Amino acid sequence: MAIDEPGSAPTGENSLACTVTFGRSSFVGRSLVSALLKSGRWTVRIADPLPLPDPSADPLLSGSIRSGRASYFQVGLRDSSQLRHAVAGSVVVFHVAPPAVLSPPLPPSDFYRLYTETVQGAKNLIAACRACGVRRLVHTGSADVVFDGVHGIDGGDESLRYPDKFEGVLSELMAQVEILVFNANGRDGLSTCVLRPSNPFGPGDSSFLPFLVAAARLGLAKFIIGTGKNMCDFTYVENVAHANICAEQALRSESTSVAGKPIFITNHQPVELWDFISNILEGLGYQSRPTIHLPVKLVLLVVVLANKVREKLGFGIPSSPLFTPAITYTLSCTRTFNCSAAKRLIGYSPIISLELLIYCCGEMKGRHLHISFHLICCFTGSSFLEELLSHQLPKSYCWLQSFSLSMALYLHPCRFGFNLEKMSSSYFQVSESTVRQSFITMASLWNKVVSVLKLLAQGDDWNVFFKAAGFLYVVKLLLPFPLSALIGVGLTCLFSLFIIYEQCEEEVDKLVSTASAGIRKLKERMVANLPSFLVTYLQELKN
């Protein structure tokens, strides 16, 4: 598959040339490229920093490149000269925001690279559009630019201003990109507008679905932060692509005043966030729905303290995106938007509703595809599952699907000579005596700790003092090492001791008894050589 030379003219009769940025690395960009190619009215240029995908991974794109209806430019937005070649000859540029997780991932601390990928890249793209005579620029950003990370938004519209303090670095940079796009409107004949989709999701999503799966694997799927009644707007990725096409048509017709304005894009169906999450997790095979409510302030306190301890002690544990104050507020706040402007200005209405998505997932589940979910993920990863749920299963995996389903249905436990009986609920009951004994043990441990602390405070028991000092010294020696390394060494030594003892039990017992006898004799000799007043003092301490 050949990549078109920079600056080559688009081909195809009665077709308009357009350029899509991040048409491969962003799942929104991939969906937009597919929608443009399927319409048959566009010659699509893709400008992306990643190399051209394998032909089998995207048959539509590879076929369009062979027929001349698409061209691929491996170029980043930081390269101004190559960027001008990519947009030359296009009448419209669809600027999809770079994905929050690039390859390699860009953490919020890497501000310079985030800035160059977003703000500086947008500056270069706008300059290329003006230099090459591009007529229209549609930028797809995010509704997060109006969210301060703390206060909820209920039915927000385009009159909302940017917050005084943004949710995170990426949201602030996205807001700067929007301002650049607004300021470019009307200059050198360029018309611009900004789309703000709320929580886009769909095939190829590398943030929302993996986030839920990671939380579920950590056992966090049973918890609800806050009341669980907060509403949120989600937008299916194909609806975002459809909104881009509607915005371009509105800019071209000039019959509406959409130029230079932001437009919120949603599915027009606000849902309870935790109910939506529960439905997704059930579709992925996690049977337990979130039922345990946690106060928002309590979760925030735990998150802040955990991050502080990690930063101060430096155990070598990287910060997790699951445990941040921003995520806590996002999962507990209401975030809904009024999309009447999208219908009035660009004629947008969702082409795929949430009911249709739920129905499709129900049909898929009805075919027992959920039986082999864990087995399939072990072989193919989460990206395969996303394609499976979106009815876009590659042909190269069809054999694996059939094989996995057949094996899951055929290998019944009775085939191996035994049956798995249903366990009685009594196995999971905890008796009152067991609970009472557990609390008594905890109280005893607490009293023992308090007693030791009192002895240390009085300063009379040197035995306790030296034990505490030795313990603290050992802890000080271990603190510089990463926690993961200490756990690994500890488990290795523990299992090694078990294996050695199992293989040489008699020899180990003899060695332990001999060492104990030697230590006792050494102790007796040392005590015999001590002055009499020390012997008397040690006997008093012992009594």
From TrEMBL:
Residues 22-296 form the 3-beta hydroxysteroid dehydrogenase/isomerase domain. Keywords: Endoplasmic reticulum, Membrane, Oxidoreductase, Transmembrane, Transmembrane helix. PANTHER family: 3BETA-HYDROXYSTEROID-DEHYDROGENASE_DECARBOXYLASE ISOFORM 3, NAD DEPENDENT EPIMERASE/DEHYDRATASE. Pfam families: 3Beta_HSD, Reticulon. InterPro entries: 3Beta_OHSteriod_DH/Estase, NAD(P)-bd_dom_sf, NAD(P)_dehydrat-like, Reticulon. GO terms for molecular function: oxidoreductase activity, acting on the CH-OH group of donors, NAD or NADP as acceptor. Residues 370-514 form the Reticulon domain. GO terms for biological process: steroid biosynthetic process. One of its GO terms (cellular component) is endoplasmic reticulum membrane. This is 3beta-hydroxysteroid-dehydrogenase/decarboxylase isoform X3. The chain crosses the membrane at residues 477-501. It is found in: Endoplasmic reticulum membrane. It comes from Phoenix dactylifera. Coiled coil: none annotated. It is a multi-pass membrane protein. The lineage of its organism: Eukaryota, Viridiplantae, Streptophyta, Embryophyta, Tracheophyta.
